[in-house]
Specification:
Charged multivesicular body protein 2Ba, mainly alpha, coiled coil, single chain
């Protein structure tokens, strides 16, 4: 019982109207089909009267045929009007739904704007930009420091390679064993010459190192 006294919504009314318009359209189609059937029958009757030579009957039936065809053409106009009404109803329904959706969206945006503080939002964005810049600067500094460390390490290794190369060229191994000193009271043949050669080799080493820029 409660459903009988329930207030109809706009959608309910539009559905009922659409249903009525569809029923009207079907009825118009049936009426047109009936008129077309009568038209064919009347054309056949006119031909029959013409063959029999009944001129007056042909005139009367011809006038009736003209009226019948006018009535059939009116059904097309009425059908077009009903279709237009149905389309307009659907468009109005869509517009009403769109208006309702826009109203709901406007209320939601209004509620969000009330809760949102523009100044606070702006400050948050500025803080984010500031911290992002700091992070970028810190990353650049770390990268520069790492590059310097690796570059210095490479220079040290390169310098050591140059020293080793020079020492190899003059016949001295950095990891080689030192020449043992001769025992006291004994003379080793060629010791003086070796000592002189050693002195010359040290000078030569220092000269080449200075030439290479190695302290």
């Amino acid at each position: 019982m409660a459903s009988l006294f329930k207030k109809k919504t706009v959608d309910d009314i539009i559905k009922e109207q659409s249903k009525e318009l569809r029923g009207t359209q079907r009825q118009i189609t049936r009426d047109r089909a009936a008129l077309e059937k009568q038209e064919k029958q009347m054309e056949a009757e006119i031909k029959k009267m013409a063959k029999s030579g009944n001129r007056e009957a042909c005139k009367i039936l011809a006038k009736q045929l003209v009226q019948l065809r006018k009535q059939k053409n009116r059904t097309y106009a009425v059908s077009s009007k009903v279709t237009s009404m149905s389309t307009q109803t659907k468009v109005m329904n869509s517009q009403m739904k769109m208006a309702g959706a826009m109203s709901t969206t406007a209320k939601t945006m209004q509620a969000v704007n009330k809760k949102m503080d523009p100044q606070k939002t702006l400050k948050t964005m500025q803080d984010f930009q500031k911290e992002n810049m700091k992070m970028g600067m810190t990353e650049d500094m770390i990268n520069d420091t790492l590059d310097e460390i690796f570059d210095e390490s490479g220079d040290e290794e390169e310098s050591q390679d140059i020293v080793n190369q020079v020492l190899d060229e003059i016949g001295i191994e950095i990891t080689g064993k030192m020449v043992k000193a001769p025992a006291a009271g004994k003379s080793v043949p060629g010791a003086a010459a070796s000592s002189k050669q050693a002195t010359i080799s040290d000078d030569e080493i220092e000269r080449q190192l200075r030439a290479l820029g190695v302290d």
